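Checklist before submission:
- one chain only
- standard amino acids only
- sequence pasted in full

Submission:
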Amino acid sequence: MKKINDFLAGLPMTVIGGVFLVLSFVFSKLNIIFPADPAWITVIISGIPLLYLSVWRIIHNKGISKISSALLITIAMFAAIAIGDLFAAGEVAFIMAIGAILEDMTTERAKNGLKKLIELTPQQGRKIIGSTETMISVEKIRTGDIIRVLSGEKITVDGVIIIGETYVDQSIMTGESVPFDKTKGDDVFCSTLNRFGAIDITATNVGEDSSLQKLIKLVREAENKQAPSQRIADKCASWLVPVALLIAVVTLIVTGDIVRAVTVLVVFCPCALVLATPTSIMAAIGQATKHGVIIKSGEALEKMGKVNMITFDKTGTLTYGKLKVSDIISFDSSVEKNELLALTASAELKSEHPLGKAIVEYAKEQNLALNECNDFRMYAGKGISAEIANRTLFCGNEKFIIENSIAINDNVKNELEKLRSQGKASIIVAEKNKCIGIVALSDTLRPEAAEVIKKLSEMNTRTVLLTGDNKKTADYFAKQIGIENLCADLLPEQKVESITNLQKKNNIVCMIGDGVNDAPALKIADVGTAMGSMGSDIAVESADIALMSDDISKIPYLKRLSNATVITIKFAITLSMCINFVAIILSVTGVLTPTTGALVHNAGSCFVVLIAALLYDRKFE
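Returned file contents:
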């Protein structure tokens, strides 16, 4: 029965039903007589799913939710059939079918995000027993096992480094663009990327306890918490059905005219009410698509109109998520900035470290001539040394410079502290017994970020920065764009916790992010918005809305569009209720018949669709 119902409720059969309904109307006006009214086809096609839905809800729903708009329209349909007005019966069933199809089209959600997140899980690991290395499946790894991870491999499980030094790309967990230097005693996380050198780790969290599995669990739980939206008509049905039946019965008793009673049921049907929400949402989604904003569901659009707080990830959202040279500081009067940059880039030519690669790329952009790099040596988690034009350079962090017996004076320390306070990564450049300069790198703010925050504030929408970056970096960027509230050093589960706490304070929260680590937060937020172009597939699939051009200036536009959509829906509902009210009076007084009532009913539905369509071309910039 369900298969038959799904087939009849589909778009192709509904279109066929509409064609026969039009034929029924045209033939009646032309006085063309057929053995059977074509509207019977419409009643069968659109009426059976309607009957199935109303009966299913009576059997399976609890309490007052057994009474739905489908039940009221089913009653009206049978009443119209009983008095022989098949056009009216087919019309109410057809309008209901169209409303259901429109709503299904706007609420269809992508379900691939969780699958893609699961695919990130490493399948095998190198277990070390004595001097023997054995490849085993991840399921067989136990807490305390020694696991080896080679350069370029994903770290198999959560663990602690016991041998080796490296740097690890943890962006999947923290979203932070700068790789973390790791050495003996440091924690590493499942599915993060070992970028340089082999390390041996002791497994600490395996299986369901690993950080990635917890991330997957958070997304799954958040997905389950997203309850399907109820139709407004169904919410009203608990009083619509009794009131409609009462008025119809009273009309029958007072006038003794069953046609008037049936007309009341026909015009009382909430078809315009059913269409008000999905048509407005479809128009708004079409408008948004023209501007490069993909909205996956009507529920998300409605909620966005009610959002009063927007939380932003930093890296890749408010910033470009790509490190670039920001400062070149020389401590040697004989070495100019361009010379310092050229020397550093020449030394880093053979480096595999992202900071080194960013320096080389920047120097090439400046068209600087780079020298041949000799005697290159890389020290994982520390820095590099190289011979450039008969000069031995050391480039790295403070620990590396001190280990090479080079003093770091107060001037250098002050500059390093200043750069740290601005959230920048620093490479100290030294030779022989002195530091000759610092090359600092930073993520770059999107130029439109400050204006976006300002516009949202003007719309009484508060903003919060939620980031995996350290506190100093977060503070610096927040001040640059005017965000007063922030939370830093957050892992994925802590972002979820922060959003949940905001929701508990009666806030409707929208989360905007781009990384895998943002996926749980995007799911748990009332509305999740992802950077569609550069954002991870998982973030995009987890979100309700995607900005395909990565233009965050679309956020204020999206908020205005959503606000207008909510207002339009409320206006359309009010209009449809007013039309129904007038139609009921005309039905009771005998002015309308079931057929003319159905036409008035249709006119109300057309008005609602027309009002919704105006959203498509309205200017919101």
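Reviewer check: Residues 554-588 form the longest helix (35 residues).
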